[in-house]
């Protein structure tokens, strides 16, 4: 795929169409700041735009002094923009276009009579797609959550399934999926090809790259900052409050991340474990992502890394995962990959002490005293804050009495005695 400069492309195509004798040129645009694009291009009479989810009806001046009309009609078919073009031709053959736009809400638009020729085309397309879209590819015992807001404020079970699908297909150590790449939920029960297409409609494919443990933690820190901003927006109830990069929040697979959102940016990730072991900052890990996320400005660590593998389209890998059976879906959906906790609860692992070592080691002269800590309740990431859980014991502490019995035969044993707990 070759992505060209939008302005240069529009200039070239508009000039070509005018040279071919077109009197009126209409551009279909899906871009940020369409007025700015339109103001740089001569020869286009009308721009029908999308992407910004706004109402826009405005004329702008192009470089040669002409006027062009820029229109955008909201989002999600809440309204439909109807534009009448009134064209007049001067004696010299120049065509002038006047515009009259009417906005109609979705319900009112249903009352407009259907155009028979358009309906026939749509019916043909639907019939051709019906067989493929209704093909059963598996089942899900639970609803898989792909709600727009939910996947931007925390890990969901659908995020688990998607990233596990990438891991299954690639053999990678870790997988990420950007929230913006998930476009629908999947209901419990039979899962069809159409359900999967609704989740992943873009035709992106999966790639793998190598990143160090330190780079992966940096990515997670960036994702947690995005999540925090999204939670604020969600709590506000204002659509405009959502950050522009909300879709860059990461759903994760292959690792367990413990984090504390109360910590300052850069210090929120408390622990990242792969197969029970903390990530090594200097070790390289294979990471699987969709090709859109692979070049994301939000994650330069990923964008700057070399691509080492390419795989099938995201929806095909998801289908392969469902084809394993419902047990695999159940296990994946139940995982807790992102765990919100507090800094105090994450302790370094202590080396285990064998109960009956074959050769007893000399115990240290002073044993460390037990430290009282308040246990905080861990929870899956979301909008709720951590709360204190009830203490599990009185003031009793864990007393470890290590008694080395030196016998004539050289045998020894270690005895562990623990205070009673409620």
Summarize the structure.
The protein has 422 residues and is an alpha+beta fold. It is built from twelve helices and 18 strands.
Overview of this protein structure:
With 422 residues, the protein is α+β, with helices and mostly antiparallel strands. It has two domains: 104 residues, no CATH class; 215 residues, 5'-nucleotidase,  domain 2 (Alpha-Beta Complex). Helix content is 27%, strand content 24%. Strands 11-8-15-10-16 form a five-stranded mixed beta sheet. A hairpin with a 5-residue loop joins strand 5 and strand 6. Helix 6 packs across helix 11. It is globular, with a radius of gyration of 30 Å. The N and C termini lie far apart (65 Å). The C terminus is likely disordered.
- Helical run tally: 12
Number of strands: 18
H/E element order: HEHEEEEEHHEHHEEHEHEEEEEHHEHHEE
> Which sequence of strands runs across the widest sheet?
11-8-15-10-16
Helical/strand content category: alpha+beta
Tally of separate domains? 2
Strands, helices and their partners?
Layout: H1 6-19, E1 26-30, H2 34-38, E2 46-50, E3 55-61, E4 67-73, E5 79-89, E6 95-105, H3 106-109, H4 116-133, E7 136-140, H5 150-153, H6 157-170, E8 174-178, E9 189-192, H7 193-199, E10 205-212, H8 213-236, E11 250-253, E12 256-259, E13 269-274, E14 277-278, E15 284-290, H9 291-294, H10 300-303, E16 307-313, H11 314-322, H12 326-333, E17 338-340, E18 379-380
């Amino acid at each position: 795929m070759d992505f060209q400069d939008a302005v240069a492309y529009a200039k070239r195509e508009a000039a070509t169409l005018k040279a071919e004798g077109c009197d009126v040129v209409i551009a279909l645009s899906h871009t940020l700041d369409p007025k700015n694009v339109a103001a740089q291009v001569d020869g286009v009479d009308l721009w029908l735009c999308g992407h910004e989810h706004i109402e826009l009806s405005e004329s702008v001046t192009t470089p040669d002094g002409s006027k062009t009309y820029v229109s955008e009609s909201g989002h999600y078919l809440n309204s439909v923009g109807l534009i009448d073009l009134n064209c007049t031709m001067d004696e010299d053959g120049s065509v002038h276009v006047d515009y009259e736009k009417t906005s109609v809400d979705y319900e009112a638009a249903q009352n407009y009579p259907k155009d028979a020729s358009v309906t026939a085309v749509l019916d043909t397309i639907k019939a051709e797609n019906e067989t493929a879209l209704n093909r059963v590819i598996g089942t899900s015992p639970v609803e898989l959550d792909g709600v727009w807001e939910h996947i931007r404020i925390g890990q969901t079970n659908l995020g688990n399934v998607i990233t596990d699908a990438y891991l299954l297909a690639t053999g990678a150590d870790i997988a990420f999926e950007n929230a913006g790449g998930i476009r629908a939920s999947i209901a419990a029960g039979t899962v069809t090809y159409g359900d999967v297409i609704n989740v992943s409609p873009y035709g992106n494919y999966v790639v793998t790259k190598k990143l160090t443990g330190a780079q992966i933690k940096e990515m997670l820190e960036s994702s947690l900052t995005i999540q925090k901003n999204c939670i604020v927006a969600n709590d506000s109830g204002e659509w405009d409050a959502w950050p522009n990069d909300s879709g860059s929040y990461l759903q994760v697979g292959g690792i367990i991340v413990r984090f504390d959102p109360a910590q300052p940016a850069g210090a929120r990730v408390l622990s990242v474990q792969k197969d029970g072991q903390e990530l090594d900052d200097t070790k390289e890990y294979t990471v699987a992502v969709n090709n859109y996320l692979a070049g994301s400005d939000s994650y330069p660590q990923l964008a700057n890394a070399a691509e080492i593998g390419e795989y099938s389209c995201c929806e095909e890998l998801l289908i392969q995962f469902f084809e394993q059976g419902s047990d695999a879906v159940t296990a994946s959906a139940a995982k807790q990959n992102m765990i919100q906790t507090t800094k105090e609860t994450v302790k370094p692992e202590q080396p285990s002490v064998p109960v009956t070592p074959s050769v007893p080691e000399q115990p240290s002269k002073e044993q460390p005293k037990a430290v009282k800590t308040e246990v905080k309740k861990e929870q899956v990431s979301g909008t709720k804050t951590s709360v204190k859980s009830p203490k599990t014991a009185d003031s009793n502490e864990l007393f470890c009495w290590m008694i080395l019995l030196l016998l004539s035969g050289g045998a020894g044993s270690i005895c562990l005695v623990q205070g009673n707990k409620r």
